[in-house]
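quick q for whoever's on today - can somebody do inverse folding on this one?? i tried earlier but teh output was garbage lol. tokens:
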């Protein structure tokens, strides 16, 4: 008779299965990217050069000029430009091809550990729509306070290649 042993369910085994993400607030949403894509999270005090380059979608960090992935324009109606003075937290990350980019966050990012089965794919109709959801690959419900908070997993390749939404001109 052959005995089959179940896999151990020790705390260390369960901890190994969890993946780490950096979650950050933008507008009234919480987005996340895998920790393995994050190079640095820093508090960045903007200067005049930052605002000039920011209009071009760039940011100077030390001797590097890095692309800014402006997620606010996807979430904020009538968005005009990022105000770095109100968003001092900067997430410097990389794509799968090691292309650096950065994201302004509205608050201090958090480290979140989630099991792979916590993520749910968006329906194809949602991710094919134009707008914010086209930048998202998955969602997860994370315990927050007495309830849950929805966290959106940013699809980095899609976000880097997406065309920004057009800003509607206000009547004069």
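ok took a stab at it. sequence:
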């Amino acid at each position: 008779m052959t005995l089959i042993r179940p896999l151990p369910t020790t705390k260390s085994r369960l901890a190994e299965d969890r993946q780490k993400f950096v979650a950050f607030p933008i507008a009234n949403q919480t987005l996340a990217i895998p920790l393995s894509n994050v190079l640095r999270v820093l508090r960045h005090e903007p200067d005049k050069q930052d605002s000039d380059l920011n209009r071009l979608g760039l940011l100077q960090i030390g001797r590097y000029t890095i692309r800014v992935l402006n997620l606010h324009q996807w979430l904020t109606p009538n968005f005009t430009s990022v105000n770095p003075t109100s968003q001092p937290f900067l997430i410097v990350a990389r794509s799968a091809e090691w292309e650096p980019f950065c994201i302004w966050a509205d608050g201090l990012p958090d480290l979140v550990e989630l099991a792979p089965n916590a993520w749910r794919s968006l329906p194809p109709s949602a991710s094919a729509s134009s707008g914010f959801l086209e930048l998202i690959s998955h969602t997860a419900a994370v315990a927050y306070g007495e309830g849950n908070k929805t966290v959106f997993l940013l699809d980095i390749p899609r976000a880097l290649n997406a065309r920004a939404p057009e800003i509607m001109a206000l009547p004069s």
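fwiw Residues 142 and 149 are 5 Å apart (CA to CA). also The first strand starts at residue 19 and ends at 26. so keep that in mind when u check it
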